[in-house]
Amino acid sequence: xxxxxxxxxxxxxxxxxxxxxxxxxxxxxxxxxxxxxxxxxxxxxxxxxxxxxxxxxxxxxxxxxxxxxxxxxxxxxxxxxxxxxxxxxxxxxxxxxxxxxxxxxxxxxxxxxxxxxxxxxxxxxxxxxxxxxxxxxxxxxxxxxxxxxxxxxxxxxxxxxxxxxxxxxxxxxxxxxxxxxxxxxxxxxxxxxxxxxxxxxxxxxxxxxxx
Length: 211
Known about the structure:
The protein is mainly alpha-helical.
């Protein structure tokens, strides 16, 4: 039992794939824009809001193709449903820029994660149905397919982001927040993949290109 657990922990800890450069790009853009705007005389509030909103918009825009693909598999081809999230994203970005309130922008991060957390919890209620649609239990060669749900892992990661964000809001300045977040992204990547590898069957090969 102890040997099996230690072997699995070692496997998870040593098999974490490197983070993709495109996953780091939003926080790098955020940090660069923050530095440039502060150096050119913009107020701390304007620099913070503009930098974070840019990172939010780019992150959501970059993930739209994956969202459309997943939606086609689960909802039988209704990528048009993504129009509302895109419109809401544009409206929310405009509101943040107009208000120019760092606290509102920080709470938007929490709000995104809360929304994601709710979606994961709703997915857990229909977990078997979702698994059957995305990954049928019988493969094309009629052999059983071992399926693993990552809904709980995703929910836990979102909860960690909420907790860290709220702690930073309550205890740190804007400069510290915007400096810590890129480091936290690296930690979250390693932490998320460690959890994923712990729930995956040991015999399953890991796609090193995933992130």
